[in-house]
Design brief:
The structure holds two protein chains of two kinds. By secondary structure, chain A is an all-alpha fold. Chain A is 71% helix and 0% strand. Chain B folds into two domains: 294 residues, MetI-like fold, CATH 1.10.3720; 82 residues. The chains are: A mainly alpha, B mainly alpha.
Chain lengths: 325, 471
């Protein structure tokens, strides 16, 4: 097991190098720092001196890959590639284009993101699974059909409409909760209710439908027939046997997204004005702050790989048949 | 009137897609293993109903894809040195010219005769009052504004009759053809269709067609007199915007899959067939791409494109071309983020197929690897490709809206549902609420995505032999 995890961690290194190279090419080779500076300073009438100045201020004034002017080892380290890309491996994100330390910002903004993402995930999981079990209990009836049609219809509505509708109904019309904003500590709860509700409603269509398919697949298996033949009640069959066995794909599906919860949700956070990593990313995109976008790309890749490894481990925990070697 | 045809990049790809679709339909009709599932789709009522809706959308989309430039008006007399206007129009634009050109000053509600905001109006006697000024076009044919309700009903009725007439002739034509082919009389054929005793559920098909035609005609006739879905901030007709957005949605939903298809199919079946180091490299490739959060990759790529476009403004002849290139680029980059799923599926399938007897036999007989890939593996994974194409469609249409909200979607000058939502979102804070842009985007998007989702379910059920017993 330890050897397996170690090997998976080693396997992650070439992937991260690949991600890094790709972002490097995307951000520095396809678009030179000169063009970036021109863009930031305002398109056309920019003097060469202003560009050089901007590059020096933001640390882009070094060569891309190889610094001839520097002595010794600094030939490699005094380059944009080393300063900006290699340092990411040590989680040294540097500073953003407006001068703030990205690492500090991330560590601060992580918590509001989690405050939204974790309840949305847990509430959604619990409600979706119960709803799916309920539908499967009434399978092949009009209730089943109606519920599936409703779920497909809900799936077909863009998430933006749920957010806009939720804000409009609950906040503007009924004044139940604030439209957007955030507060520190436990006072944040009233700002979190609406995003969590909207997050659940937006995800119930695809979520409950997916779990329903999982349960339906189990329903036709032999062990279920055996359980029924033993004379167990339908309720017991459903909750003990089917739910237990369907938990494996459900659990692994959840584990894979767990690390990515740190990244937050772009749309939800920016609509509800929550100072998490999602809105951080959106702001960076609209301000064209490439340093932050690069840092978030790297962080996302790390968390994705972490999710994959966790999934493999969780397989061995819930399913004794799976052995890692 | 001679026009100068303009083929934008996405137009060319849409035509290519249509050609591939036709070619594939021909191919599928000659191969039983592909024809049988489609026959199952054709027998499904939900499948055919949604297919009619999708076909209506596609028709509008295709009309909006044929672009041209009109000649300048004053030079028609001298055909030798004819000059063409700078504006790139589509057939839909030309057809809906009244909708396109009747621009109001700013917001007006659906079916309104007056603007939504008060303005200072100078009375004939010179005094100035603040009131809702009348619209320039909407409802201005009315002599007495209080007659509006009756006029709407009468116009709608005229549209209804027109729609039913067209529908009736289409029904008669279809049934007459079918009746003649089977040697039945028209009345027998009609009775069969009405009692739903035909193999293809013609009652459902024709019923849906009736609904779409009537809706279309009523909306069309009303739209000539009123702004049936209101006007937006700069006074453009929202109904027209929603119609124009159809093409954007369809292009994103289909071209994305088209552009990623070659890479996904080739790499997927190669990884599964060759295994070994080829497999390792391809797996490494798609794990790496998958590891980058999709939105960020799109954002990064679009930002790069913006920088490039800002620095090379002279390379683009017109705004339309620029917007079109951005749309194509968005499809490409969405394709890059979404090809991995299909690639992995195909790899798994190819792993299974390479052990099949006929593939082993080909290897033993000395057939080349690429001949095997082309002749034996590829035709047997085509159904997966098709299901993916259908299943991905609705997700991509929805993704466009979200991306446009973050400003990394289509060009802000391009009509799209995402842009409509984005610009309408802020107006919800107004009192009374400007709701019609949102409602229009919702209505058009919901219909398309719902139809696509239901259709995708039918197609998947028809192709997936594993699920067939379960239902």
């Amino acid at each position: 097991m330890t050897a397996y995890i170690l090997r998976r961690l080693l396997y992650a290194i070439p992937i991260l190098i690949g991600v890094n190279l790709l972002t490097f090419v995307l951000f520095f080779v396809l678009n030179t720092p000169d063009e970036m500076a021109r863009m930031q300073l305002g398109e056309k009438r920019v003097t060469a001196a202003a560009i050089a100045n901007w590059k020096r201020e933001h640390g882009y004034d070094q060569p891309l890959l190889f610094n001839e002017a520097a002595p010794g080892l600094a030939k490699v380290t005094q380059t944009i590639f080393f300063q900006r890309s290699v340092k990411l491996f040590a989680f040294d994100f540097g500073s953003s284009d407006n001068g703030r330390a990205i690492g500090y910002d991330i560590s601060q903004r992580m918590w509001p993101s989690l405050a939204i993402a974790v309840p949305v995930l847990l509430v959604g999981l619990a409600l979706n699974v119960s709803l799916a079990l309920f539908i499967v209990f009434f399978r092949a009836t009009y209730l089943d059909l109606g519920a599936v049609v409703l779920l497909v219809a809900m799936m077909s509505i863009s998430g933006l409409f749920y957010i806009i509708g939720g804000q409009f109904l609950l906040s503007k019309l009924f004044h139940l909760v604030p439209i957007s904003g955030y507060d520190t500590g436990w006072n944040a709860w009233k700002f979190l209710i609406l995003p969590v509700i909207v997050g659940f409603i937006g995800g119930v269509g695809s979520g409950a439908r997916w779990y329903r398919t999982l349960f339906l697949e189990e329903v036709s298996k032999d062990y279920v027939r055996t359980a029924r033949a033993k004379g167990l009640t339908e309720r017991r069959v459903l909750f003990r046997h089917i739910l237990g066995n369907a938990l494996i794909p459900i659990l692994t599906g959840v584990v894979v997204v767990l690390p990515l919860l740190f990244m937050g949700s772009l749309i939800t956070e920016s609509f509800f004005g929550i100072p998490g990593l999602g809105s951080y990313t959106i702001d960076a995109i609209s301000n064209q702050d490439f340093a932050i976008v690069r840092a978030m790309v790297f962080l996302g890749a790390v968390l994705y790989i972490l999710g994959l490894i966790l999934t493999d481990i969780s397989y061995t925990l819930v399913d004794p048949r799976v052995r890692l070697q | 009137m001679p026009v100068m045809p303009v083929i934008l990049w996405t137009d060319a790809l849409v035509f290519l897609l249509l050609a591939i679709g036709l070619g594939f339909a021909l191919y599928a009709s000659r191969h039983e293993h592909l024809r049988a599932p489609w026959r199952r789709v054709a027998r499904s009522r939900v499948g055919m109903c949604t297919l009619v809706v999708l076909a209506c959308y596609c028709l509008i989309g295709v009309l909006d894809t044929i672009h041209f430039r009109l000649p300048l008006a004053d030079q028609v007399s001298q055909p030798a040195g004819r000059q063409f206007g700078p504006e790139v129009l589509s057939l839909l634009d030309a057809w809906a010219t009244p909708l396109r050109q009747r621009q109001e000053k700013t917001y007006s509600a659906p079916f309104a005769t007056h603007l939504f905001v008060k303005e200072a109006i100078t009375q004939p006697d010179g005094s100035v009052i603040r009131d809702y000024p009348p619209l320039r076009y909407g409802g201005q044919h009315l002599k007495d504004p209080s007659q509006r309700g009756w006029d709407i009903v009468a116009t709608a009725l005229r549209g209804l009759i027109g729609g039913l007439a067209v529908w009736g002739s289409i029904v008669a034509a279809i049934l007459w053809r079918k009746a003649r082919r089977r040697g039945l009389t028209l009345s027998v054929m009609f009775a069969q269709a009405r009692a739903a005793r035909t193999e293809v559920p013609w009652r459902t098909v024709l019923g849906t067609l009736a609904a779409m035609l009537v809706l279309g005609f009523v909306a069309g006739t009303l739209a000539l007199k009123y702004h049936i879905l209101g006007t937006d901030k700069v006074g453009e007709d929202v109904f027209f915007q929603a119609l124009k957005s159809i093409r954007t949605g369809l292009v994103i939903g289909t071209l994305t899959t088209l552009v990623m298809l070659p890479a996904a199919v080739l790499l997927g079946i190669m990884a599964g067939y060759f295994r070994g180091w080829v497999d390792d490299i391809i797996q490494y490739l798609y794990t790496t791409l998958n590891a980058i959060p999709g939105v960020l990759l799109i954002a990064a790529a679009i930002l790069m494109l913006q920088v490039y476009m800002a620095n090379h403004a002279e390379a683009f002849e017109s705004l339309v071309q620029r917007a079109d290139l951005r749309l194509l680029f968005l499809c490409l980059i969405l394709g890059v983020t979404s090809w991995t799923g299909l690639c992995r599926l195909l790899r798994g399938e190819a792993l299974k197929l390479r052990e099949a007897d006929y593939v082993q036999a080909s290897v033993a007989l000395g057939v080349g690897h690429f001949a095997i890939l082309g002749r034996h593996i590829l035709p047997n994974v085509l159904h997966i490709v098709m299901i993916t194409l259908v299943l991905d469609f609705s997700g991509l249409v929805l993704a466009e809206a979200v991306l446009s909200y973050v400003n990394i979607g289509v060009d802000p000058t391009m009509n799209s549902w995402g842009n409509m939502i984005n610009s309408a979102r802020l107006e919800l804070a107004r009192d009374p609420v400007v709701w019609w842009s949102l409602a229009a985007a919702f209505l058009f998007m919901f219909t398309l995505v719902l139809a696509a989702n239901l259709f995708a379910d039918v197609v998947r059920d028809a192709f997936d032999p594993r699920l067939r017993g379960a239902r």
